Amino acid sequence: MKLLIQEAANKSLPALKLVGFRVLCRSGEEYVEEIPKAVDQLFVQKSEIPHVVTSNGYYGVFMVDACHPDVDGYWVCMEVGEFGELPEGMEELTIPEQTYATITYQGPHTYIMKAYRELHDWISKKGCERLLNTWHLEKYSAFPSSDKHLDVELYDTIRRGVIDGK
């Protein structure tokens, strides 16, 4: 089993414009089944999305502690340079400029939580504050293959300037 978790770091990203599907489930267990369906649908319809920045990968977007029903759920999206006409069933989402703690994970989908635990431990050791009611990202470099091997960078939002003492 190939499993690679690179050392965590912090990054600031400019605002992102995303277009894709929102997945909203009643229970956490349903997301395990529904998110892959949304990813498959995004892959099928990606050519219908105008102004796509890159057609190879996609984003998973969520708030850990959604403070409002409008932001509850998980979005499966592609980055666009500008918003255009939305394909049926898709939504647009703007992620503001934010600072993140990041870690890259490559391996089976069943071990992604190990990478999240390492990232959260790193955040804690650095004395950073996780911002749970802001957007968190999973940046996938490619659509998943049949073996469900992931190549993903996890972005956990942290308070700006905490690491560098600002």
From TrEMBL:
InterPro entries for this protein: AraC_E-bd, Cass2, Reg_factor_effector_dom_sf, YobU-like_regulator
Pfam families per UniProt: Cass2
Domain of life from the UniProt record: Bacteria
Domain AraC effector-binding per the UniProt entry, residue ranges: 6-159
Official protein name in the record: AraC family transcriptional regulator
Species of provenance: Halobacillus salinus
Native organism taxonomy: Bacteria, Bacillati, Bacillota, Bacilli, Bacillales
